[in-house]
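Entry type: protein chain
Record version: 2
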Amino acid sequence: MAGQLVLIGGPANRPLAEASARALGVPLAACEVARFPDGEIHVEVHESVRNADVYLLQPTSPPIESHLFQLLLLADACRRGGAERVTAVVPYFGYARQDRRASGREAVGARVVADAMGGVHIDRVVAVDLHTPALEGVFPMPLEQLTAVPRLAEALGPDAEREVVVAPDAGAIKLAERWARRLELPHAAVHKTRIGGGEVQTRGLAGEVRGCRPLVVDDMISTGGTIAGAIAAVLEAGAIPDVVVAVTHALFVGSAGERLRKLPIACTFVTDTVGAEPPPGLNVRTVSVAPLLADAVSRLHEGRSLGDVILHV
């Protein structure tokens, strides 16, 4: 076991950091993240971290570049302060969708971010429901992938009485399978083509949804285009217009609110990994991942297994 556990919450999602600290039973270490007049970010940790086992809780949510660089500077400050081990707890990992090239002249953003984390000597990264589990291959350090599916599934309550789980695209099929196993339901998948940053085109459906009340699941809602396309596809295939949506990361950027308000969504279940304010007019229920993060941090600090809280592909 490493030295004393120190939990530091970055400014990206302070409420989640505070809730995780309460669940752990430890105080948040004091730190300052500020900007000089020219825009430079300045970071200082106000408590001793020498020989400590430090956990930096900071999602790289919008504005992604600012939150990412804050995390890197926090890690560097801890290293220079003599921390024995630094773990980045990144509930939402920005750039997770940039894990491969579509052309020969395209950056692999996920690899760049992973290398930057290695450059400030982060020893381990903890994330929740990454866009693709294969992302682990780009990291030079261990990556622990937690899943919020059990917490979301427990929160559904009566709304869990669905007849089919729907993956809105091929990338969410394994996620839908995990949901389907947990709820003992069949699953279906929408075939999607992305035609722009926030626009998608659906090209058919695999699985039976006719006469069923669907549960649409995904790792995130960004602009809402993927969810909207999936709901349109299942309604066209005869599903009952009584839809529940469950996603881990609720970004709600751009025209997401306007797009989703037009759909027959009874309720949208999300977690607080990002902490974005839900658009008005949507029935959104938020489930906290603070107990999940606190449990993982406690296990890592004490050298115990993460077997039943990590994502099994």
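Comment: The chain has a mean pLDDT of 92.
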